[in-house]
Design a protein that fits this description.
Blueprint (H helix, E strand, L loop, with lengths): L1 E4 L5 H8 L8 H21 L6 H8 L3 H7 L3 H10 L5 E4 L4 H18 L1 H13 L3 H28 L8 H19 L5 H16 L1
Antiparallel strand pairs: 1-2
Length: 209
C-alpha cells in the first residue's frame, strides 16, 4: 500500500494564507508575491541568503521595490517566507521489509538533495540559521518533518518484528538519515544510489547484531 506523508505547503495556497486583508486576495497580487518568492529562492540557491536584497529581488522578479515593501517589512521577512514554503515531498511505501522501505525513501532523499531547489537551499539555511532565529525555526521544522517520516518506518518494522521493540525509534531513524545529511553538508561526498544502498545495508546489518 502506497502512503504519502508530507508537510509541504502548496506555494499558491501558502501565499493566500499569508494575506491578512481579504481585499488583497486579487490573483494579480498573488502572482506578484509568487514572482517575488520564486526570484528570492533562485537568488538564495545561487548566491546565498546575503544576496537577497530588495534591489536584487526586484531586478530578478520585475516587481518594483515599492511593491515589495508593501508586502514584506524587510528582505529578511521575504526570505523567511520563501524558504518556509520549500520542503521536499517524501513518499514512503510499505514493501514488507525495513531494508526496502528505507532504501526507497533514502534514495528519494538523496535525489532531492542533489536535484531540487530545496537541496540547494539547505547549506544556506544551515549557515544562516546560527544567527537568524526565523531561519533556525524553519530549519527545525524541516528536520522534524524528515525525522518523523523515518521514525514511522522504524515503528512499522518493530510491529513486523524485524527489529527489537525496545530500540529507540528516533535513534534508529537518525542512523539512517543523519549520515546522508552529514555527507551532503560536511564531507561533500557523493550520495548516489550505490552509496545509499551500501549505507542502508550496513545500517540494517548493525541493527541485526
Amino acid at each position: 500500500m502506497k502512503m504519502s506523508y508530507t508537510q509541504r505547503v502548496d506555494l499558491t495556497k501558502m501565499l493566500s494564507m499569508t494575506i491578512s486583508d481579504p481585499a488583497e486576495s486579487d490573483p494579480r497580487i498573488e502572482r506578484t508575491r509568487t514572482s517575488a518568492i520564486e526570484a528570492t529562492l533562485e537568488l538564495v540557491a545561487e548566491s546565498g541568503i546575503h544576496a537577497c536584497t530588495f534591489d536584487a529581488i526586484s531586478e530578478r522578479s520585475g516587481v518594483a521595490r515599492s511593491t515589495l515593501y508593501r508586502h514584506w517589512k524587510n528582505q529578511n521577512d521575504l526570505v523567511s517566507e520563501a524558504i518556509r514554503c520549500q520542503n521536499v515531498e517524501r513518499i514512503i511505501i510499505d514493501t514488507g521489509s525495513l531494508r526496502d522501505d528505507m532504501l526507497h525513501t533514502m534514495l528519494g532523499l538523496g535525489r532531492a538533495l542533489d536535484r531540487s531547489i530545496w537541496g540547494s537551499l539547505i547549506p544556506h539555511m544551515v549557515a544562516a540559521g546560527s544567527n537568524d532565529p526565523q531561519i533556525a525555526e524553519i530549519q527545525t521544522l524541516h528536520a522534524d518533518y524528515h525525522h518523523t517520516i523515518d521514525e514511522q518506518i522504524v515503528d512499522r518494522a518493530k510491529r513486523r518484528g524485524e527489529i527489537p521493540a525496545e530500540l529507540d525509534s528516533a535513534h534508529v531513524a537518525l542512523l539512517f538519515y543523519a549520515p546522508i545529511f552529514y555527507r551532503y553538508l560536511q564531507s561533500h561526498q557523493a550520495i548516489d544510489a550505490r552509496w545509499i544502498t551500501k549505507h542502508v545495508d550496513n545500517t540494517i546489518g548493525l541493527l541485526a547484531t
